[in-house]
Design a protein that fits this description.
By secondary structure, the chain is an alpha+beta fold. It contains six helices and six strands, in the order H-E-E-H-H-E-E-H-H-H-E-E.
């Protein structure tokens, strides 16, 4: 299934075409659960800070974690939504059973799933009920996004709404690039982002993360990247202007 997903990622999202892979990864791959260890998380954040030319000791740690999460969420959302929209099937991305691999610059590069998990190769037809990933975007939210938000906030004191806002922006962008607005997954994304009535995940913080702006959607909460020297602004997404463009 992983190969099928990669082949369906549009060219505009090619940077994260391989954001999910099956296998143990390289020697530096680490289980996501290990990031709950402050020492492991600090080492991961230090590698990222060095890669973007920012020394963590001299920066707002919350801003650096938020910026790190944007790379992580792009690697997650691109293949996860492609699988849902283009194939109608979820990837097995439960937080506790997934690992992370960094690129040479310390950025989150890909999430690694168990190559022996039946969902990576059989489309779900050979899974027993204990192995089936939760369906739709709600499964991704509950099985992966929620524990990821909790991790980030526990490690730096960041308000959860900042990470939920990062997730909402990226999910919205990826869904738009995938098109296929008639696909059930796209309707679920719209509901989860609070644009229409919908399923249970519409009651998550994703639904309060964005608001309408003059040039499209805008964050309700700043992602804090303006506190990182040399990092470009998020432009029209920035909430420092009043929502609604007035």
């Amino acid at each position: 299934m992983i190969e099928e997903v990669s082949a369906r990622v549009p060219a505009s999202l090619a940077a994260y075409r391989d954001g999910v892979a099956a296998g143990p990864g390289g020697p530096d791959a680490r289980p996501l659960a290990s990031l709950r260890d402050p020492a492991v998380f600090d080492a991961t954040l230090a590698a990222f800070g060095a890669g973007v030319g920012a020394a963590p000791a001299g920066l707002d740690r919350r801003a650096l974690v938020s910026y790190w999460s944007q790379f992580y969420l792009a690697a997650l959302a691109t293949p996860a939504l492609t699988a849902l929209v283009r194939l109608g099937r979820p990837l097995p991305l439960a937080f506790e059973r997934t690992s992370l691999e960094l690129d040479a610059a310390g950025r989150p590069a890909r999430l690694l799933v168990d190559p022996d998990h039946p969902a990576t190769g059989c489309g779900g037809s050979c899974l027993d009920v204990t192995q089936v990933p939760q369906p739709g975007l709600a499964g991704l939210v509950e099985d992966h996004l929620r524990p990821f938000v909790e991790l980030c906030c526990a490690q730096c004191g960041l308000a959860p709404r900042v990470i939920w806002g990062n997730a909402a922006v990226i999910l919205d962008y990826v869904a738009g690039e995938l098109g296929a607005s008639d696909a059930p997954a796209c309707a679920e994304v719209a509901a989860c982002l609070g644009r229409c009535a919908g399923p249970a995940c519409a009651r998550t913080p994703l639904a309060q993360a964005l608001c309408a702006g003059a040039a499209g959607c805008r964050r309700r909460t700043c992602c804090l990247r303006s506190r990182l020297p040399g990092i470009p602004s998020c432009g029209a997404l920035c909430p420092l202007e009043r929502c609604g463009g007035s």
